[in-house]
Write a structure and sequence with these properties.
mainly alpha; two-stranded antiparallel sheet; 2 strands; 8 helices
Length: about 240
Amino acid sequence: MNEKSKLKTNNWVVIWVAGTILVLLPLGLYFYIFGPASHYTLSDNHSAWASFGSYLGGTIGPFLSGLAFLGVWKTYKLQSEQLDLTKKQFKKEEVERLITSVVDKMDVLLSAPIDLSTVESDRKCLDIVSIENVLTLIYKNTVSDNAEDNKYAKSLKNHISITINSILNETLYLTWLLSKQRKDHSESVAIEYCWHRFINIFAILHIIDFRLEHETISLFNVKEFAELKLKQEIK
C-alpha cells in the first residue's frame, strides 16, 4: 500500500471514529441527565418520546445530514474519477490505433513496387523492386567513390521523390503520435518497435539527404545510427 492509500485510509478511520463519538455523546448525555429520574426504564409517555425525538433531531440530525452530504460528494467524486479514467483510456487507445494506422501506411509505401526501367540513366535495369530496396540501392550508390554510381543515385532519388515525400509526411505524423504517447502515458514500447522497424530507413534517408524533421531525428537517435552505419560501410 503506497503513502497516498495509507493517508486516505487514515482519514476515513478518523471520520468514522469522530462520527461514532458525535452520535454516542448526545445519547450518553441524555441518559446521564434524565436516566436517574426514570430509573433507567423506558417511558410509556408519548410526549416524553416526542421530546426525546426532538432532542435527537436537534443534536444528531445535523451530523447525519452531513454524513449524507459526504456520501453524495464521495459518490460524485468516484464517478468523476471513473469518467476521467475512461476518457484517458479512450485517448490512449485512439493514439495506439492511429500509430498502428500510420505504421501500416508506411509499410505500404515502402513496399510499393517501382519500375527501374523508366529511370533516366545510362544504366538499363528491368527490375521492379520495392521503395525500401530502392532506398538501399540509392544509399550504396551515394556512399560509393564512383562518380557514375553517385549520378545513378541522384537519378533514383528524383524518380522516387514523390513517394518519399509521402513517407516523410507519415514519419512526421508518427513522430508526433509517439511523442504524445510517451508524454501522456509514459509508454515507450511503440517507440522501440518503430525504432527496430524503421531506423535503417530513417538512417538511409538522413544519409542520402532526404530531410527528416528534427523531432524525428531526436526521437529515434537517427544521426547517431547513421554515423555508425557509415563507419561500418567504410570498414
